[in-house]
Every structure is written in structure tokens, then in C-alpha cells.
């Protein structure tokens, strides 16, 4: 277990801290002690975030090194939050919450760990002489612009520290809260290479509400893609996961890719749903409740594994290639690792991609396994 040995009580000190003027969440009230988290300062709830408990921790480090054996296209990641109120049913990161003695279902959506000292810690880390300023990826495990960021405002400081130290970085998010930091990102892009990716794999708002209930609407995310373009920040799109029998029809793919092209997406990477342990159980229980007629088909398609059958992924790769070409969209891989298009290996969507965390996951150590949106 990554976090160990510390508990808190809803004592007078916590009440005082929660109500201190000038701190994020002066309206917060202490929540019952729940977790054995290292560095835990307090656990709080606030009326603005009904049903959510924030566990504020002092992290010892922020920069997370991805093992050299990983196939990921970056060596360093930052995840200021653990757990994610975007609550996507298929989320790969769900399993990581079990390392905190929390469950991979509702707890992942509502028991959020916040590294409240993230900016101070990063400030020290990027000033070390040994820091060689490699690319740093944000949004690889949980979403840095989930709703909690509106309360804690960690990202502006993180962006400043990275850009100020000459460290190139990329951000992948579903959160339209990123628009708040557009001026800062635009300024950062004059100092270092900055990649921005938006995760959007379906444009049907009714389905999005069922599958990704805490996320901004598809229309809001398309608008964000437009705003990024207007701000001069090219925006790649991660159209994952494509959901068999739910979002993989020609009509759905044509509508999605057409909407992305119309919004000005500079490129798109897409692929089928992966069902890793942790996400798999959660997905099947959702499917049984929402689309029981599909349960047998999914079981046959995925068997006991993580990936859809080769026949299916080959078929889907062909459809994705067709619709990407039809709408004049290139690859988005370069936006997530700050490389020119020419450096991105040619490959069909649906094949193994540089940014395909599921393919690389076996080489990554828990709990901060990079995960895609
Ligand atoms: S897939 Fe991404 S946005 Fe969705 S719950 Fe997981 S971390 Fe959050």
C-alpha cells in the first residue's frame, strides 16, 4: 500500500483548519476519519460538492517516474488528484483506489485524495540540479481538471512551475475547467512545448450522461476544442473508448469525427474499450443494468481478457481509418508528447499506439499507472 500509518480525527484542529480564512474551502466541515493515508492533513466535505469527501494530503513528491520498461511515450507524470468525480464507468484508474483501502466503484468517484502541497513540492523538484527537464504528462491517471480543481486551483501553480523551469508538458482532460487556464497555457507555450489533448469519444449527450455522469457534456468539450484553437493551442483528441454496439456504428463514428473536425481538432486517436480488472466488473454491472441484451455479446467479444477480439479490433481500425480520412483528421499522438507529426510512427488506430496505456500497463507499477481518458 502506498499510503500507510496515519489517521485523522474530526478534532478541534481540523475544524480550525477547515475554517481558516484564505484556505481553499473555508466552508468545509470535517468528515469522519476514514483512511490510513500518509501525509493526511484533514478530510472534509463542503456543500458545493455534495456526496464528495476530500482527503487533503501533504505529498512527499509530485513527479512520478514511469518505469523504463514501459512503452509509454513519456517518462514522467504528475497526478495532483487520486479518484475522479468524472465517474466514467469504464475508467482504468478505478483499481488504483483499492490501494487506498477504498473501493473501485462509488469510492473512486467520491473519495478524492488531493495533494494540497503539490505546487510547493513541484517547485523544489524542478529546481534540483538532477532535473533534466524531460517531458511531463498530466492527466495520465486521473483528470487534473475534474471539478475538485475548481476548489483547489492546483493546476495554475503546476503550469507555472513546469514552464518556469523549462519543462515541456502535456495535459489530457475531459474537464472544461481547463478554459480557466487558457491564458496561462498560451503564455507557457511561448516558453516550452505544451501539448493539450481533450478526451471525447461520444457526442450523444444521453449516452454520455449514463457512461460518464460527472463529465462536461460533449457540446461543452467541443466548444473547448474550438476555444483552444482560437487561443492558438493546437488540440489533439483522444476518442477512447469506442464502445462496441453503443458508439461503433458508422453513423456514430461519422457524427463523432465530423464534430471533431468541425470544432477544429488537430488530430484524433481512437480505439476500442479495454476492460482491465477493476474497470471490468464495474462495466459489466453497468451494462447489465443499462443494456442487459448486450452482456452476452460483450462476454463473447472480450472473453476473460482485457481486449476485444482481434477480429473486432481489426474491423474497428478500418472504420476509424476511413472516418478519420473522410474528415481530414490526422493522428493526435504528437500532442501528448510534444513531437512533430513526422516523428509519430505510422500506424492504424486500433493497433497498438504510443499512448496506449492498456498495452503498456503490465510494465507499469501500481498505483500510478498511466491511464488514458
Ligand atoms: S476516465 Fe479519466 S475522466 Fe473518467 S473517471 Fe477516469 S480519470 Fe476521470
UniProtKB/TrEMBL annotation:
It holds the Pfam family Radical_SAM. Keywords: Iron, Iron-sulfur, Metal-binding. Residues 357-366 have a biased composition (Low complexity). It comes from the Bacteria. Residues 344-373 are annotated as: Disordered. SUPFAM superfamilies: Radical SAM enzymes (SSF102114). Coiled coil: none annotated. The keyword Metal-binding applies. PROSITE patterns: RADICAL_SAM. Residues 70-304 form the Radical SAM core domain. PANTHER family: SLR0285 PROTEIN. This is Radical SAM protein. It comes from Tersicoccus solisilvae. The lineage of its organism: Bacteria, Bacillati, Actinomycetota, Actinomycetes, Micrococcales.
Amino acid at each position: 500500500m502506498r499510503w500507510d500509518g496515519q489517521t485523522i480525527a474530526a478534532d478541534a484542529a481540523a475544524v480550525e483548519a477547515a475554517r481558516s480564512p484564505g484556505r481553499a474551502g473555508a466552508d468545509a466541515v470535517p468528515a469522519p476519519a476514514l483512511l490510513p493515508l500518509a501525509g493526511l492533513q484533514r478530510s472534509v466535505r463542503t456543500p458545493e460538492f455534495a456526496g464528495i469527501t476530500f482527503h487533503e494530503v501533504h505529498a512527499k513528491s509530485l513527479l512520478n517516474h514511469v518505469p523504463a520498461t514501459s512503452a509509454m511515450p513519456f517518462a514522467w507524470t504528475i497526478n495532483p488528484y487520486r479518484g475522479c468525480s468524472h465517474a466514467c464507468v469504464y475508467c482504468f484508474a478505478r483499481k488504483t483506489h483499492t490501494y487506498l483501502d477504498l473501493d473501485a466503484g462509488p469510492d473512486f468517484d467520491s473519495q478524492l485524495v488531493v495533494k494540497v502541497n503539490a505546487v510547493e513540492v513541484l517547485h523544489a523538484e524542478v529546481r534540483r540540479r538532477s532535473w533534466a527537464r524531460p517531458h511531463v504528462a498530466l492527466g495520465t491517471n486521473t483528470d487534473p481538471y475534474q471539478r475538485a480543481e475548481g476548489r483547489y486551483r492546483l493546476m495554475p501553480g503546476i503550469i507555472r512551475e513546469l514552464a518556469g523551469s523549462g519543462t515541456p508538458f502535456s495535459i489530457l482532460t475531459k474537464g472544461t475547467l481547463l478554459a480557466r487556464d487558457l491564458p496561462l497555457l498560451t503564455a507557457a507555450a511561448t516558453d516550452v512545448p505544451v501539448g493539450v489533448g481533450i478526451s471525447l469519444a461520444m457526442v450523444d449527450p444521453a449516452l454520455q450522461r449514463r457512461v460518464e455522469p460527472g463529465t462536461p457534456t460533449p457540446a461543452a468539450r467541443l466548444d473547448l476544442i474550438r476555444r483552444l484553437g482560437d487561443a492558438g493551442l493546437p488540440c489533439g483528441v483522444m476518442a477512447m473508448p469506442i464502445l462496441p454496439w453503443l458508439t461503433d456504428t458508422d453513423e456514430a463514428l461519422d457524427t463523432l469525427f465530423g464534430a471533431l473536425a468541425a470544432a477544429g481538432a488537430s488530430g484524433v486517436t481512437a480505439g476500442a474499450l479495454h476492460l482491465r480488472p477493476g474497470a471490468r466488473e464495474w462495466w459489466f454491472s453497468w451494462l447489465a443494468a443499462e443494456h442487459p441484451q448486450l452482456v452476452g455479446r460483450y462476454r463473447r467479444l472480450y472473453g476473460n481478457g482485457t481486449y476485444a477480439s482481434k477480429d473486432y479490433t481489426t474491423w474497428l481500425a478500418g472504420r476509424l481509418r476511413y472516418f478519420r480520412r473522410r474528415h481530414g483528421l490526422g493522428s493526435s499522438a504528437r500532442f501528448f508528447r510534444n513531437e512533430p507529426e513526422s516523428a509519430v510512427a505510422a500506424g492504424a488506430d486500433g493497433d497498438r499506439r504510443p499512448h496506449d496505456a492498456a498495452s503498456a500497463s503490465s510494465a507499469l507499477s501500481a498505483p500510478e499507472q498511466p491511464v488514458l481518458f
